[in-house]
Amino acid sequence: MGATLILPGLNGSAEGHWQRHWARDNASSTIVRQASWSRPALHEWLQSLEGELERVGDAWLVAHSLGCLLAAHIATRPAARHVRGAFLVAPCDLERTERLHPGVIDFGEMPTDRSPFRTFVVGSRDDRYMDFIRLRRYAALWGGGAARSWTCRAYQYRKRVWTVAGGLPAILFPYRCARS
């Protein structure tokens, strides 16, 4: 199936986060390291991702929050030729995230270009970082195959179930909340 590059968001993904479980449970997965998790700068994060893509060749991207915006930004760069597809979980709205974390993020504007690779977007209706209407809008702009929603506060990895959905790697979360 190829390599999977995991793209955490602001402050990285702490131990116990579903991205950590994914990385631990799948030998082909790598968490893309960033120089600063607490003060993300787009140009630095892009360099790290591009370096990993050059190192591994073709790869799937599995992103969360600000990592989703990184995946969307890579779409316009030459390294996008290495991306087989992207699974974007709970993308953040940059404007809202900057309000919640003033002076911390240097990520420019929200990416709006269509991805040259297949994209699957999921989010929740009660995410304080991106309201669902905007989630659907950005999923459509990026060419997302779907914008699914769950009414819950956090994405919880509770069982190790893996599948391939529409050619993209996807994790089946046994949510304790209702899908809408």
Radius of gyration: 15 Å
What is the typical, i.e. mean, pLDDT? 82
Shape: globular
At CATH level 3, the topology is Rossmann fold
Q: Classify the beta-strand content into a percent band.
A: 15-25%
CATH superfamily: Alpha/Beta hydrolase fold, catalytic domain
Distance between the termini: 30 Å
Number of helices: 5
How many strands in all? 8
Ranges with pLDDT <50 over ≥5 residues? 150-180
The secondary-structure element order is EHEHEHEHEHEEE
- Domain module count: 1
Strand order of the largest sheet: 2-1-3-4-5-6
Decide which structural class fits the backbone.
Answer: alpha/beta
Largest sheet: 6 strands, parallel
CATH class, please?
Alpha Beta
In the CATH classification, which architecture applies?
A: 3-Layer(aba) Sandwich
Share of helix, binned:
25-40%
InterPro entries: AB_hydrolase_fold (IPR029058), RBBP9/YdeN (IPR010662)
Protein name: Serine hydrolase family protein
Pfam families: Ser_hydrolase
Organism: Rhizobium lusitanum
Q: Mind explaining what this structure looks like?
A:
The strands form 2 sheets. A 6-stranded parallel sheet has the order 2-1-3-4-5-6, with helices on both faces. A two-stranded antiparallel sheet has the order 7-8. It has a single domain (3-171), classed as Alpha/Beta hydrolase fold, catalytic domain (Rossmann fold), CATH 3.40.50. The chain has 180 residues and is an alpha/beta fold. The protein contains 5 helices and 8 strands, in the order βαβαβαβαβαβββ. Helices cover 27% and strands 24% of the residues.
